[in-house]
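Bench notes, bay 3.
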Amino acid sequence: MEHHPAAARLTEAAAGAVQQHGTGNLLRVVLIVMVLGCVLTAWFLLRGYKRKDD
């Protein structure tokens, strides 16, 4: 497995957030990102239905 510095930074940031503020804030961030991802995915998939291919 290769070492990715960006992934290590994200892991350290997540661990730091849990230590400083508990799991509540981390869970809140994860849920917000998940909802935004679902909305963007739905927009991307459904935008093709608005086009008229006459």
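Next record in the batch:
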Amino acid sequence: MSGPLDDQLGFAPDYDAPVPYMQRTRDYYTAIGYTTPYRWAHYIDAPFQPLKKPLAQSRVTIVTTAAQYDPAKGDQGPGAAYNGGAKFYQVYDGDTSKQHDLRISHIGYDRKHTSATDSGTWFPLPQLLKAKAAGRIGEVAPRFFGAPTNRSHRVTIDTDAPDIFARCLADKVDVAVIVPNCPVCHQTSALVARHLEANGIATVVMGCAKDIVEHAAVPRFLFNDFPLGNSAGKPHDLESQALTLELALGLLESASGARTTMQSPLRWSEDASWKLDYNNVAQMSPEELARRRAEFDKQKEIARGNRAA
């Protein structure tokens, strides 16, 4: 992975680069027996909506892929295994004047390196309210919106994104901060961002899966090189979360055109070997792959039943 010359020149290890989530996901599902490769959404150009007014006068909402906690749906964390029963399939909204318990057990975040004990890492409403109090933004919109994590591009493009736009329009939203968690969440968020921008609402995606978001081509992307599930900052680190939101707001102001990516200067840790772990089949035994195949099939059946209900 590195050698004496790397040490002499101060090079970082080769693996200390953005995690290749699209390739990891393809390799993983092939290894557990699903041989038809998933087609990730891919565009070259992206729509772009400049801010219509200064942020200090703008109404800002959040679009999240986190789910509302429902105690009837089994273990939802922290530390919960993947819980297909907690998935949601229609757009939902929540009152931003109230506290909310949002969880990410229903999606494939990085369970090895993410504690899932602090929702501030995936739902930046507390920081957005602080930005409003400080005069950084004009208003927090009356509602935030939940975007279903859907592998179907068609459903996201034709159903969920227009639904979110209609709700934004009803709330007179000027700006949407969009926060994904898992690999497919990043694709969903990119498609929602594209739809909102094409219809006059400025957006910024705060995410951890650089390859997926840039493959789909979004207007503005704040890349946080953190394990999946931490798009809004480090857990139990309010300074990190405040800086991450400020970087996103700054990108809304500074981007001069579509496909603008900014990388956060924050590092997860000095040791970047965490990047080697997520869905990396090179580190899994045949027994582990078989166990994961069985668990995946089980969760698919649960999700199929919930979708039909």
